[in-house]
Amino acid sequence: MSIQFKALPTEAVRALQRGGPDAYGLTPELRISDGDGVPCRHCMKNVGAGDGYLIVAYRPFPQLQPYAETGPIFLHAEECERAADGDALPEMLASSDYIVRGYGEDDRIVYGSGAVTPTDDIPARATTLLERDDIAYIHVRSARNNCYQCRIERA
Question: What is the pTM assigned to this prediction?
Fold first, then answer.
């Protein structure tokens, strides 16, 4: 089985970059990167030192429901190119480990599927999880702060 790491959709990102409201109805906050630990969820690269970035509340689920976690993410303040879907680990995944967790077709957590996973092991863990019929997709989230990083789907 092949997997695909998926960045945020360009249409949603452009709306935020143009000052549109985030998941809480707030205007994105503009900051300047020091070059350390500011991963853009659209191009899936780190925001360089001195470059502007946005902090926004993001909910990677289509509807409100009890499992629809909302939290902070970073985006380049200026337009950037969306990362292509692919099976290679995104450049922005620079921490030693991440939470890798499966979700069902109903967008609910599949209990027992989540684990803190060493970064280099994420593709193998995702492949194993996506072999299960009850898992429709996977989230990669920060192991320290639970922030959404990206989605993984079957290719």
Answer: 0.95
